[in-house]
Specification:
transmembrane, mainly alpha, Caa3_sub_IV, Cyt_c_oxidase_su4_prok, Oxidase, cell membrane
Length: 113
């Protein structure tokens, strides 16, 4: 994040233009996200459901989400509190996934009646 009084450019007194990412970088990241989406679609249509298809698609989705969060949600320029908040939300989401999968994968072992 930029601070209001640190910009030396008189036409940008709040330093907004100085902290903005370049258009070329954002277009490159956008192209990478689109390419990963196409790879994910191609993976699902060409290979189909398989043992490693879902983990590969989840990995591709994770990379896409990381690119979007880092560049388009400005975690790149965020201070440590913003980054810590984003990481803590991922941590809690991981706990929820572990609890959900633990419940789902052990339902066959529950004795009823």
């Amino acid at each position: 994040m930029s601070h209001p009084n640190t910009s030396a450019d008189p036409s940008d007194p709040h330093g907004i233009r100085a902290s903005a990412d370049g258009t070329g970088l954002l277009l490159t990241v956008f192209a990478a996200v689109v390419a990963l989406s196409l790879a994910n679609i191609g993976l699902s249509t060409s290979i189909g459901p398989g043992k490693f298809t879902l983990p590969m698609q989840l990995l591709i989705g994770t990379i896409q989400a990381g690119l979007v969060a880092y560049y388009f949600m400005h975690l790149r320029h965020g201070d440590k509190v913003v980054i810590l908040t984003a990481l803590s939300s991922l941590f809690w989401m991981g706990i929820m996934f572990v609890l959900f999968l633990g419940d789902y994968m052990t339902r066959q072992y529950v004795v009823t009646g």
